[in-house]
Amino acid sequence: MKGQEWYQADDVAEEYDDKRFSQGGQLIDRREKEAVLEAIMPVEDRNILEIACGTGRFTVMLAEQGADVVGLDISAAMLQQGRKKAQNADLDGTLEFLRGDAGRLPFPDDHFDTVIAMRFFHLADDPEAFLKEMRRVSRDQIVFDTFNRFSARSVYNWALPMGSRLYSRSEIAILLAKTELTLVDVEDDFIVPYGLYRSIPNGLASPIRKLDTAIGKLPVTDHLASVSYWNTHVR
């Protein structure tokens, strides 16, 4: 995985949410959570694994809504932040955080209803292997997101501390075929890349987001979105 040393640093974990999901980044957080919930609903009583769960943004949200969730991450520091977040949450389901490698998931075959991976595949050095492992432990559904090759994301990708793997739609289609997953739905969003939202106040980000959403609905911009949310089912 790209950037493992950077990602596992204590100071990165402590500042991760503030740097990415404060100010205009709140809009990103809200949209990503909406995408996950729309794909998984109904959430209650569902058995879910999140790989690369980070600080538990999605794991805590899903457990609050009644799911039984396991969050797995390589970073002990990130998991510690997730546990702190869970202590202040009102959980209707169960939640467990485990340290582990997404390439060798410590679970038997078909163990979970749903496996999700958000903000993960842009760091994957072997996406097919990771997706196969997710497929192995899921008996029903896999939800993930990707950053897209033909988008504004590519413009500033070089400036990121560890870069990003960008995908075309044809690459994802090939990955799904190789891992025997059926595409149920895909949602494309954010003509304006994430980096801009994170760097400006929420009051300024909101009107930009409205314009971004309106432009994104035009047919001519279908393939310019910087991120895609993929909902797939196991064959």
TrEMBL record:
Keywords attached to this entry: Methyltransferase, Transferase
Does the keyword DNA damage belong to this entry? no
Which domain of life does the UniProt lineage start with?
Archaea
A molecular function GO annotation? S-adenosylmethionine-dependent methyltransferase activity
Methyltransferase type domain: from which residue to which, for each copy? 49-139
Which Gene Ontology BP terms does the record give? methylation
Q: Specify the protein name.
A: Type 11 methyltransferase
- Organism, per UniProt? Natronolimnohabitans innermongolicus JCM 12255
